[in-house]
Amino acid sequence: MRSAFKEYRAVRVLSADPDASELDGGEIWFRSDTSEWRGYDGTSFGTIGFTADA
Length: 54
Prior knowledge:
The protein contains one helix and four strands. By secondary structure, the protein is mainly β.
């Protein structure tokens, strides 16, 4: 399992989702046209949501 904390990768800002053929799985980016955090798990794209602490 890859850990973003160990890899110290910079987050990309994109205006559209990248082509799946360019991704390995485990990538995240900020999509500027929709103001959403997005990711790819190796098989599908998804929006990353956050819940406020109680």
